[in-house]
Amino acid sequence: GEDVEQSLFLSVREGDSSVINCTYTDSSSTYLYWYKQEPGAGLQLLTYIFSNMDMKQDQRLTVLLNKKDKHLSLRIADTQTGDSAIYFCAETSNRDDKIIFGKGTRLHILP
Amino acid sequence: DTGVSQDPRHKITKRGQNVTFRCDPISEHNRLYWYRQTLGQGPEFLTYFQNEAQLEKSRLLSDRFSAERPKGSFSTLEIQRTEQGDSAMYLCASSPGSSANIQYFGAGTRLSVL
Questions:
Q1: For residues B32 and B23, what is the distance between their CA atoms, to the nearest angstrom?
Q2: Which residues of A fall within a CB distance of 8 Å from B5?
Q3: Which of B2, B78, B82, B94 is the most buried (most CB within 10 A)?
């Protein structure tokens, strides 16, 4: 079945760039997403990329997609304390409408 | 606030009791989804509706779970005879149902079964 893998933890110093990586197995993925979840809260859609794109930039966020290697990354420039959260990589395919999530990467900001 | 709304935010119940959660989607979104998230995991798909029709159900959705969306607007998720393993965050999402079918999530209902 479809699978989404991402590392569980990342520590970054405040002001540095954070790069969160993700791999997926579904070759028919149409959309790939990054969601942010703060403690006790729901999921906030950060950004998404359509599978025929290889890059998307939105303010401090840059998403890179390597479809050949099925690799997705999220770069957060100038990481701030408010970026501390769990970041979920996710995908949907054109077969059905459900989102398949990774287990999330907990981003810890060091002072 | 025009986002996805879920009620209640927290529910504590005793094992064996029935619970019902409500989700109000973003206005004019015709697709509505339920997911379950346990500690340390990503959300897992449970079921989804296109208007009032329930189109897909996950194998995670046992016979004790039932979801409805009677008028194609809000939805309810009921769990009968709750078990401790049902303790989780239950997340609702909605999407326009168009080609750019991006799902937007509510804040979730956290269920604790004692």
A1: 9
A2: none
A3: B94
Name the one residue in this structure whose structure tokens are 């002072």: A111
Give the closest of A90, A97, A104 to B31, CB-based: A97
Predicted confidence (pLDDT) per residue in B63-105, tens digit: 999 999 998 899 999 999 999 999 999 999 999 876 667 899 9
What are the tens digits of pLDDT across the range B32-55?
999 999 988 999 999 999 999 999
Alpha-carbon distance B107 to nearest alpha carbon in chain A (angstroms): 4
d(CA A98, CA A91): 8
Q: What H or E segment, with its residue span, contains residue A110? A: strand A105-110
What's the start-to-end Cα distance of chain B, in Å? 33
Does A42 contact B91 at a Cβ distance shorter than 8 Å? yes
